[in-house]
Amino acid sequence: MDYPTRYGLVSRLFHWTMAALLLFQILGMLASNALGRESAVAQFMAPIHQPLGASLFVLVLLRLLWAALNARRRPAQEAGAMGVLAKAGHGLLYLLMLAVPAVALLRAWGGTRGLEVFGLQVFAPREVAVDWAMAPAAAHGPLSLLLLLLILGHAGAAVWHRRVKQDDVMARMVG
Cα(137)–Cα(84) distance, rounded to whole angstroms? Predict the structure, then answer.
């Protein structure tokens, strides 16, 4: 469980596991796109991108459930304008962590390739794509880049708290 002074082990595991997977996914796909479909990076990323993305979607849902269960125990956010910005930034992070895989899942549901995650067929391939389900797919990449920028801003805010403000904000999530 979480505590008013720091986040508990489960919250920290969610945070750092998701941070690592999100950065791996986004940076791996950026490298794949930059180097081309035939590159070793692209060949490595292609078969694991969808299963990891689906796993991240489930992790985000579980993390939100865990946060709700710990709502009264969690450390208080900063007061004033900085607290409002922190709350808005976290809200946008969660929104994008849900939206990026949701758009991809919708594309997989409505597409002709289907979706298989760790050997389990989630969505069967269709003979004809569902156009309205495919339309939002173009937002997947740009939303991922926006998510990366927010992650970098989040990391920058943590460093600012540690180096400039010299408070315990970062220590609450480090453990």
Answer: 31
Structure tokens at 152: 């970098």
**Cβ-contact 5, 172 below 8 angstroms:** yes
Q: Can you tell me the distance from the alpha carbon of 50 to that of 107, in angstroms, rounded to the nearest whole number? A: 11
Q: Taking a C-beta distance cutoff of 8 angstroms, is the pair 143, 21 a contact?
A: no
Task: Give pLDDT tens digits for 88-147.
Answer: 999 999 999 999 999 999 999 999 999 999 999 999 999 999 999 999 999 999 999 999
DSSP string, 42-104: HHHHHHHHHHHHHHHHHHHHHHHHHHHHTTTTSPPPPPHHHHHHHHHHHHHHHHHHHHHHHHH
